[in-house]
Specification:
The structure is a single chain. This protein has 62 residues and is mainly alpha-helical. Helices cover 58% and strands 0% of the residues. It has helices spanning 10-13, 23-42, 50-61. The radius of gyration is 21 Å and the shape is elongated.
Length: 62
């Protein structure tokens, strides 16, 4: 019925991988992800890694 064809440079169109692999999509998603991480850190909602928590807990019992 319909055949879509996106033309243009692969950096802007994503080439065979589609629009989600394009440079603008990558930049927008990376910036959004960094913003979410920064907001979580600012709110104190980031936990220490499991191996650090385990080490801190062992030191408290000794």
């Amino acid at each position: 019925l319909l055949r879509a064809r996106i033309s243009g440079p692969e950096l802007l169109t994503g080439g065979a991988f589609g629009a989600e692999a394009s440079l603008p999509a990558m930049l927008i998603c990376t910036a959004f992800g960094m913003g979410v991480v920064m907001l979580a850190r600012r709110r104190g909602q980031v936990m220490a890694p499991m191996w650090v928590r385990r080490r801190q807990g062992a030191g408290a019992h000794a």
